[in-house]
Amino acid sequence: MNFYNTCPTGAAIAERIIISGVPCFIICRNPYPALSTALKRFHRQAEREVSHLPDILEDDEPRYIAYSKRTQSNGDDYPAKDVIFHLTGGGFFTHTIAGDLPFLIDWSAATESVVICPEYDLLPEHSFPVAINQITDVFCALSSGDTAPILGFRANKIVVTGESSGGNLASSLICKLCIEEIVDLNVLRFAKEQGQDFLYNEAEGFLFTPSLVASESLDNSKLNKLVEDNDHWKETQVVRLPDGLMLNCPVLNLCESISPSRVVNKDPILPSGFLTAISQAYLSASSASRDHPIVSPFFASDHLIEFFPPTLICTSNLDPLLDDAVEFNARLRHMGVHSTLRATQDLPHAFWGLAHAGFPEAEMAHRECMSWLANLLRKERKKQLLLCHEEKELIIT
Fold first, then answer.
1. Is residue 214's pLDDT more than 60?
2. Same domain flag for 246 and 353
3. CB contact at 8 A, 254 and 164
4. Based on the domain organization, do 137 and 275 belong to the same domain?
5. What is the number of other CB atoms lying within 10 angstroms of the CB of residue 122?
6. Is 73 found in the same domain as 56?
7. Does residue 260 have a cis peptide bond before it, meaning omega lies within 30 degrees of 0?
8. Residues 238-259, buried b or exposed e (16+ Cβ, 10 A)?
9. Residue 203 · residue 76 · CB < 8 Å
10. Are residues 176 and 198 in the same domain?
């Protein structure tokens, strides 16, 4: 079956389009007219643009035509839809979208969300930081609302998921958003100073906390000063952190660290030599250190770890990266992040795709992942703090 021309069994929508210059797979289990209409419009424009191109040789690579953005909009005129932003594994050398499709379709059905999988550039032609930069560009376009004219909806909650090397990129994305201050750390720090969890307001693009709304601890003078110091919010769109992070056997540490699970490694999917080869190839054209948090999120500082969203980490007792996952989960929990570790028995590295292959442990883990996603995305919306840019007044809804 050709994924590019036909929808996989069970998917109402399965298309490939361009977002921020990156080919992305769009998957939706249930019919969604707003998305279907937008995708048809995308392909019509692509056909019109192709018709004006010079003659294309038969052996040329397929041409991907990006949908031209009409206006700079945060998507207020579009319906909201939850998004699962999935990053495939494959050791940075290949994409595993074909094997991931069955469980991605299930996730879409369980959460009534749209799954978006960026087809980031691969080794050996493209090494660090190409892939993480592309992923960041696509995520920022989703978060800011730039993709609303392309997709026909604005992203409501966004959960980032990743398996194996995709788990590296998923957690690296959080680090990059914070380290490079793509998200507004002033707002994040303000919420942290108040001792509250973060809450995103989709209408204005601010991160605040639910209990501050009814609490006398809200310092209006600090909040007004925060706005005055960030006049650029009036002109630019705000990128937020993901609402959740779900990882499976993530490659968190690209250093050649020694741990019991690596020493006794007998995993058929990820032999020790392959992990070393991946690390060397990934950084072949970069001077970045292997222990930089955007390369190896395992080494993120506590001040960075505390900004991570609610997290679920899946792993296996046979995974050579088990110890890294256990320690990373412990650090997240120590810093107050709502993080859960789910360890399966007798499954190889990167086992999500085995859920539809008759492996009971994989099926159980698959159901738990769907339940976690559904609970996170369907959680009852709390009161949110809105900040009016124009009048700089506090509005509670």
1. no
2. yes
3. no
4. yes
5. 17
6. yes
7. no
8. bbbbbbbbbbbbbbbbbeeeeb
9. yes
10. no
pLDDT value at residue 75: 61
Residues 310-327: pLDDT tens digits? 999 999 999 999 999 999
DSSP state for residue 334 in the 8-state scheme: H
Q: Which SS3 state, helix, strand or coil, does residue 154 take?
A: strand
Give a three-class secondary structure readout of 95-123: CCHHHHHHHHHHHHHHHCCEEEEECCCCC
Residue with the bigger pLDDT between 358 and 234: it is 358
Residue count of the chain: 397
The reported pLDDT for the residue numbered 156 is: 95
Find the CATH number of the domain harbouring 319.
Answer: 3.40.50.1820
Provide the token pair at 109. 């059905």
Q: pLDDT at residue 342 above 80?
A: yes
Classify residue 294: in a domain, yes or no: yes
pLDDT in tens, 343-394: 999 999 999 999 999 999 999 999 999 999 999 998 533 333 233 333 333 3
Type of residue found at 333:
R
From CA 348, how far away is CA 362, in angstroms rounded? Answer: 10
Same domain membership, residue 118 and residue 232: no
Do 119 and 229 reside in the same domain of the chain?
A: no
User: Are 204 and 265 members of one domain?
Assistant: no
User: Closest Cα to residue 104, out of 91, 89, 120, 121?
Assistant: 89
CA dihedral 123, 126, 127, 132 (to 10 degrees): -110
pLDDT-derived band of residue 65, with 50, 70 and 90 as boundaries?
very low
3-state secondary structure of 275: helix
pLDDT at 6 over 90: no
Sign of the dihedral defined by the CA atoms of residues 76, 42, 160, 190, in that order: negative
Angstrom distance (rounded) from CA 327 to CA 295: 17
Domain range for residue 339? 13-181+240-377
